[in-house]
TrEMBL record:
Gene Ontology molecular-function annotations: cysteine-type exopeptidase activity; dipeptidase activity
Annotated InterPro entries: Peptidase_C69
One BP annotation, GO: proteolysis
Domain of life the protein comes from: Eukaryota
Cross-referenced Pfam families: Peptidase_C69
Alphabetical list of Gene3D superfamilies matching this protein: Penicillin V Acylase, Chain A (3.60.60.10)
Protein name: Secernin 3
Length: 421
């Protein structure tokens, strides 16, 4: 049995579907809240074909590789194989959350929730197919292992918000058991608690029997997943104080008028704790626009830096021959990486990428020299608005210059770095 040594505070993920959004679009967003000294990178992996029998090395374990993997863009802690959030070439987006409940968390090394997230993106072309990939892998390999680059144990179960152009799914797990809820309209968010109650659209075939065997459910009362598998008072979930409730309120406050900028505003909200500060803080953020019209491109914005309130959401669009995202990619250490050595995490290398370093220096300026910091913040916010405006023009006109899209994210990173200089 593993002990959790850190308070359960980590991440918020959101989705809005018509008619809650402006236009025929699904809007997805996530803040990744991680240890404040952890570097989050934004990386791209092209689609690939693999030979029968190929193996895949994830963060801790090796699994069977799929015959084909889709192109993905990921925002991830730079020491792991998986990701905190990301998207694939088919417009599938996934964000995950740490959750705890009655079932003890196992610290045996298996697939991290972040590994499952990346595998879902690489292997599925719809949100529901991604859900199937995740639960099949969960059944086969299990979930477990330290989720922090430290000798101190930080382990948890996982929940996922999975979205595509037409629908979204919430998948919540407890060990190998799980429940899933389908969202076809309106808004939904997940945080660090189980939130699926009596509306269950898919589930592990033995989930209810296991709950009965543990004495958590009598088999007579209406089955409420969150109430049975955790200690959540589901009657007060959307009214009691907390990030899940505050996120729910912020989404509903803007319901009917939600855009990508609305989602960015929610992710920047510090009063609610959604933009987290302290020992655990928001180390990376993502917002995606998934148009329901299949001829329009999905647009994914990533910060690649801590604190979205003083970061730039930069756009990425899937096109052939994407320029590698060198300035948001952390250095690699191969087999000498302390993550790969036994015992793990005896040392901690410098994993900062170029954008992270420049942003780190700019953050010192913003805190030390108020006027200069204010000017710099205005400049990066102006840059962001320009990028959002250009992306909106693409969506309105349906005209995408593929040659420009190849360098879209990398060019935006360069412009951000030049602003800090």
């Amino acid at each position: 049995m593993a002990s959790r040594t850190t308070e359960p505070c980590s991440c918020d993920t959101f989705v809005a579907l018509p008619p809650a959004t402006v236009g025929s679009r699904v809007v997805f967003g996530k803040n990744s809240d991680r240890p404040s000294d952890e570097v989050q990178e934004v990386v791209y992996f092209p689609a690939a074909s693999h030979k029968a029998g190929d193996k895949l090395e994830c963060t801790y374990i090796e699994i069977e590789q799929a015959a084909k993997t889709y192109a993905v863009v990921l925002s991830r802690p730079s020491w792991i194989w998986g990701a905190e959030m990301g998207a694939n070439e088919h417009g599938v987006c996934i964000g995950n959350e740490a959750v705890w409940g009655r079932e003890e968390v196992c610290n045996n090394e298996a697939l991290l929730g972040m590994d499952l997230l990346r595998l879902g993106l690489e292997r599925a072309d719809t949100a529901e197919n991604a859900l199937t990939v995740l639960v099949d892998l969960l059944e086969k390999y299990g979930q477990g292992g330290n989720c922090m680059e430290s000798h101190m144990a930080f382990t948890y179960h996982n929940s996922f918000l999975i979205a595509d152009r037409k629908e979204a799914w919430v998948l919540e797990t407890s060990g190998k058991y799980w429940a899933a809820e389908k969202i076809e309209e309106g808004v939904r968010n997940i945080s660090n608690q189980l939130s699926i109650t009596t509306r269950i659209d898919r589930e592990h075939p033995k989930m209810r029997d296991y709950a009965k065997s543990k004495g958590w459910w009598d088999g007579k009362k209406e089955f409420d997943f969150a109430a049975v598998y955790s200690y959540v008072n589901t009657a007060r979930m959307t009214t009691s104080r907390g990030r899940y409730c505050d996120g729910y309120k912020l989404l509903n406050k803007h319901k009917g008028n939600i855009t990508s900028e609305t989602m960015m505003e929610i992710l920047r909200d510090k009063e609610s704790g959604i933009n987290m500060e302290g020992g655990f803080m928001t180390t990376g953020s993502m917002v995606s626009i998934l148009p329901q019209e299949p001829n329009l491109p999905c647009i994914h914005f990533f910060t690649g830096t801590p604190d979205p309130d003083r970061s730039v959401f930069k756009p990425f669009i899937f096109v052939p021959n994407i320029t590698q995202l060198l300035k948001t990619s952390s250095p690699t250490f191969g087999h000498d990486d302390p993550v790969k050595e036994q015992p793990r995490f005896l040392t901690k290398p410098d994993r900062r990428h170029e954008l992270y370093k420049q942003h780190e220096s700019a953050a010192v300026v913003m805190e030390t020299f108020k006027e200069k910091g204010k000017e710099m913040l205005e400049q990066i916010r102006k840059l962001e608005k320009e990028k959002i405006s250009k992306m909106e023009s693409i969506l309105q006109n349906g005209c995408l210059d593929v040659n420009q899209a190849v360098n879209l994210f990398s060019q935006s990173v360069e412009e951000e770095i030049n602003t800090y200089a």
